[in-house]
């Protein structure tokens, strides 16, 4: 939600700069506004990349946590030493993926 607000502010600023350019401003001002707009776009792209990286890591972590819990429960229910060995070797994700 915060990124949408930031993006809308950048779009508003960019449109206002275009309006100023159409109204006729000096070349120096045009170049400065162009660089500022490019910096805003780069910053917005950076925010989007950070946003997706954060959620990828977050969901990856929650998936691994669910897998670890599933293997612990499975090992306790069945008394299966193989499942316990897989849990400690970090292969829990493959087990959950096979049963999903």
From TrEMBL:
Keyword annotations from UniProtKB, A to Z: Membrane, Transmembrane, Transmembrane helix
Membrane-spanning residues: 6-23, 35-59
Protein name (Swiss-Prot/TrEMBL): Uncharacterized protein
UniProt source species: Zea mays (Maize)
